[in-house]
Amino acid sequence: MKGCYALTALVICSCMHYSLGVLPGNPRIVDLTHTLLNGLVYWPGEVHYQWNRGFRGQTPGGFYLENNDFQSSEHSGTHVDAPAHMAQGRWKADQIQLSRLTGPGVVVDLWEKNVTSDYLVSQQDFQDWEEQHGRIPDGCILMIHTGWAKRYWDAGQLAFMGSTNESGLSFPGLDPAAARWLADNRAMHAVGIDTCSVDAAKTEAKGSHTTLLDLNIPFLENVANLDQLPATGSTIFALPIKIGGGSGAPARIIAVIDGGTSAAARGPGPRLVVLALSILALYVI
């Protein structure tokens, strides 16, 4: 029995060492999140993000202290759309399963197509990607890179959204027909895009939202730095604020790129396997 304990302890230590970052291929972490700052682009009619400086200085107790406050729409900056946003009875922000907010990253790169504000991402765009990289894997985080994020800070509200009024909005997005094809034929964990909405501005009835959110597929919007990701070979993590009853929430989204892999569908990543082995070892003890 003592030998069993010793062996189990060795397994745990090895797993912990491996899971804490000693991985082959020198994995790289990419931040896919725009910084929340006063003056960021906003959806017309919603509460603007506003950060206010609070106290800053020495306290009577003799220590230094900073605190601030902010107000914001649930859909400010880089954020997650909960399925309940446009699908009645579906998951709210605090109900989204964490397993649906992580998965192998799939980046459909449309940058070279010189996407314009009226561009609709089509079924053919996804099929073209699959011809080169293979089938979009089940459980992936499907990211659409239009190149629009370059306008987020550099060019401001009018360049990124087309208008300060909802009637004049103009930006690219997912064709509802392509959303229906994805819903019927693929099994993503989530869909993300570098514009302010998965649906294009001119799309009536928000067909991509209603189709995919109804399947409890959350959206990641205003995603940054998709140009730094490979088409495959990353794992994406999206962590929205856990707002009770929320229709969405600002989120920190990151990608971990394994320098030693390039295939999208490799099953659970090494960290997940290591974590499972660690839990199993603890259970044995």
UniProtKB/TrEMBL annotation:
PANTHER family: CYCLASE-LIKE PROTEIN 2
Domain of life: Eukaryota
Family listed: Belongs to the Cyclase 1 superfamily.
GO biological process terms on file: L-tryptophan catabolic process to kynurenine
Record's signal peptide: 1-21
Gene Ontology terms for molecular function: arylformamidase activity
InterPro entries per UniProt: KFase/CYL (IPR007325), KFase_sf (IPR037175)
Gene3D superfamilies xref list: Putative cyclase (3.50.30.50)
A Pfam family that the UniProt record links to this protein: Cyclase
SUPFAM superfamilies: Putative cyclase
Keywords assigned: Signal
Name of the molecule in the record: Isatin hydrolase-like
